[in-house]
Amino acid sequence: MKKILLAAIIITAFAACKKNPVIPAADLGGGQVFDPSVYNPAKYLVSAANPTPNASDALKPVIIACHGYSATTFEWDEFRAWSAGRTDYFISQVLLAGHGTTYADFKAATWHNWQASIAAEYNTLVSEGYKNINFAASSTSCPLILDMIHAGFFNNTGTTVHIFLVDPIIIPADKNLSLIGILGPMLGYITSNNAPGEEKYYYHYRPQESLQQLQDVLNVARNELQDGFTLPKNVYLKVYKSIKDPTADPVSAVLIYNGIKTYNGGHIGIDLINSNIHVFTRLSLVPDVTARDKANQVYAFNDITTQIFQ
Question: Which position has the higher pLDDT, 177 or 8?
């Protein structure tokens, strides 16, 4: 009964929505604003910037930084800026397929397409000769990578792979997402309350088709975690989770902790972060950032860049 009432309220609230929104040209999805990696991939992807590494570069750690649903490479810009001047590791910022360009692209891409962008950069780096490849994933990229682990993607890797999950989403904080299969075709799209300035980097209009894909990959990851699986011998996994996350229910971290075991049967590492920000490592354009928020970000960046050498 409660779900029926909620559905009626949502339908009423969105009754005035057209199936295809009119998107301002200055907003992501409007057809004029694109993620900068589209124009200059060599600035973002190690595979494009240095496709023939020398012996020394091939041994340096590469961190593939992967953003969340409806976001862009912007989500990891601060990590790159913080790392400026470091020459002992590389950062490769991946743009998930369907993101960072047009609304039509976003609408058409599946979660398998999103995941393929991550796998493609890893596979290209391997083919180019890089030996130490790691991941820093935020939000929806986390279940994408967890599914890759579950599918055996890293089973034959010859070196240690460190995977760092920042505010992984398995269970959304907004439980209305579970209704998207019923209400989505009627609504066409929903809107997101982005902070000022974020419209160039995060989709304001989110097509129901992409929300269906989000729900699907969360369901896949949740089922895999409930079944349980073990990390390959050379894969290290750590989770950083905001305790008051408005987007990803903190129980997401519990499901990962309980659902994954290390190769020797131990528990993975988890850091609970005293934060109310989703993807606490991205503070640019976030309103009312505190000294504690900045300290949390620096802690995670320091920890990630320390762990990859262990």
Answer: 177
